Amino acid sequence: MRDRLAALCLFVCLGIAPGGISHAVPVEGLYEATVSGDSTEAGRAPAAAEALRQVVVRVTGRSTAASDPTLQSLYAEASRFVQTFRSVAPGQISVAFDAALVETALVKAGQRLWGRDRPQFLVILDGSVAFQANARRDLQGVGLARGIPWVFADSRVEPPPGVRDGNPEALRGVGKTFGADGVLLLKPGSSAATAVWTGPAGDGTASGAAVEIADGIADRLGSALAVSATESGRLWVVVQGVTDLSSYVAALAQINDLPAVRSVAVDAVTASTLKLRVSGVSDAGNLRKAARDAGHFDVDEGGSVREIDLVYHP
Fold first, then answer.
1. What letters, b where the CB count within 10 A reaches 16 and e where it falls short, cover 134-143?
2. What's CA 256's distance to the chain center, in Å?
3. pLDDT number for residue 10
4. How many CB atoms lie within 10 A of CB 108?
5. Which of 9, 13, 180, 268 has the most CB atoms around its CB within 10 Å?
């Protein structure tokens, strides 16, 4: 009974959906950054430039974007993108930017953009209490800086067999069980932390500081999930005929499994209708065809280039 309650605690604490359905998480604050400085006239320009560097790293998914020579002119005129300056602590200022203006400038500069729907990673920390506390702090810092929604497993619960050994199949299994898009196992090594992960950007291993490992994963995710101006970043999908929990889970799974779909986020649930944000598909026509070929949807051939309407049937 105690083990079952502990497992339930893990599920509740994670706050993510079971059943193998991956939900991209909308990450807020992508176009804001807190930097050293003040809100005086002289202090605003350098604060805006440093804050914009942080924002561009976050929304392009590239850690090298801050020093990219092709973007230095953008940082030099950072003040024109600013919406607000706000003092948050002595010597600290929060800078918020106009997302549309920044995105337009980045697209013009040939950059690929990573939207606010981000894959949710389940993090399993192994090792001493001190190691886990330090690793959690470091990953939280990287998560804030890079826009990665880490979710930390309850360390009091024994993970399933093979997870602590870093078996990729075991990691994928626990991720599927708890609805996470990816799983990261981090534990101490002889001289540095060691990591094994699986997720939307593939499987990988690394050793080093937790910050370096997390930044590396963020770079891989950004490379895999950021899209250019010629690619579709998001389509709206309205699914009718979802009458109970089982059809809800099944319809989401079917959409998630369609070719080229990178992430599915639930925007609204009303009566028997789901409204979803789907990322990764080149255009609505391709998604309509894929849904029709899947055999579980009736497809409305009308609609806009940004939204498709489906009726689910088991």
1. bbbebbeebb
2. 15
3. 43
4. 10
5. 180
Is the pLDDT at 262 greater than 50? The verdict is yes
Residues listed for the chain: 314
List, by residue range, all CATH 3.30.70 domains of the chain. Answer: 235-312
Per residue in 181-234, pLDDT (tens digit) is 899 999 999 889 999 999 888 899 999 999 999 999 999 999 988 877 555 456
- Determine how β-strand 193-198 pairs with β-strand 82-89: unpaired
Identify the pLDDT of residue 132: 95
Sign (positive/negative) of CA torsion 98, 99, 100, 102? positive
- What is the torsion angle, in degrees rounded to the nearest 10, for the CA atoms of residue 54, residue 227, residue 214 and residue 19? 130
The CATH fold assigned to 235-312 is Alpha-Beta Plaits (3.30.70)
Number of other residues whose CB lies within 10 A of the CB of residue 125: 22
Please tell me the pTM assigned to this model. Answer: 0.71
Residue 132, CA distances (Å) to 140, 164, 214, 215 in order:
12, 14, 14, 18
Q: What is the rounded average pLDDT for all residues in the chain?
A: 85
- The dotted CATH code for 2-22+116-225 is 3.40.50.800
